[in-house]
Amino acid sequence: MKRPRTPLPLELPLIAFLSFLWMALWQDFTLGTLIVGAVLGTAVVRLFYLPPLRGSGRINIWWVLVFTLRFLAKMVAASFQVAWIAVVRGPKVRNSIISVQLRSHDDFIVTVTGHALALVPGSLVIDVDRTTATLYLHCLNVTDDHDAERIRQDALHTEALVLRSCGNRSDLAVVKAEKRLGRVSGFSKTERDQAIPTRSAAPASARQRRGPAGVSEEGGR
């Protein structure tokens, strides 16, 4: 099956990054190395399949600044926290793997959010389910459900700042709606703990309302 061709202008940021990476690897930032890196980068993105990074076309400098300051503050605080846990608790510390389903399915947003979480000491992205935009985080010092929920909400807050900084308008509308309604994406802990009602446990009145369509036994007879 022939894969769809990505327009070259959409691949220019990736080619520029590969060119810079080529110069960094050779530690030679001259024009000749840049040209060779650009040629190799173009060959890589045109000959090998890579998911296209389609930008949203918008960037908010204020939220970029907020995201950057929060990220730096978290890195500093987490560094001291990890050092304290390593010295005081040592190998007795308890870790957990936490799944976080993000709002956006955009590859760029998922990648930036995952890197922002993985670069903070104490947490590491060990897997990504691209189809459901779910990150699996290995987190340090998680002892109960409350800690897991706190980390999940922190990850969603990080994604919200990324969306406010450079997300597309539909994802940004979701973030604004959540703030207006006073809740975050996904199920709350209480909602996740509730048992899923079975068909037999459904109220009789509800089954009778479906009767005219001939779906339920009570209504169909």
UniProtKB/TrEMBL annotation:
| Location within or outside the cell | Cell membrane
What Pfam families does the record point to? MNHE
Q: Which GO terms describe its molecular function?
A: monoatomic cation transmembrane transporter activity
User: Which coarse location class applies to the principal site listed for this UniProt protein?
Assistant: membrane
List all membrane-crossing ranges. Answer: 7-25, 31-49, 61-87
InterPro entries recorded for this chain?
A: Cation_antiport_E (IPR002758)
> Key word Cell membrane present in the record?
yes
Write the record's keywords in alphabetical order, separated by commas: Cell membrane, Membrane, Transmembrane, Transmembrane helix
UniProt lists compositionally biased (Low complexity) regions at 199-214
Its membrane topology, per UniProt? Multi-pass membrane protein
Which Gene Ontology cellular component annotation is one that this UniProt entry carries?
A: plasma membrane
- Protein family per UniProt: Belongs to the CPA3 antiporters (TC 2.A.63) subunit E family.
Q: What is this protein called?
A: Multicomponent Na+:H+ antiporter subunit E
Q: Which organism is it from?
A: Nesterenkonia xinjiangensis
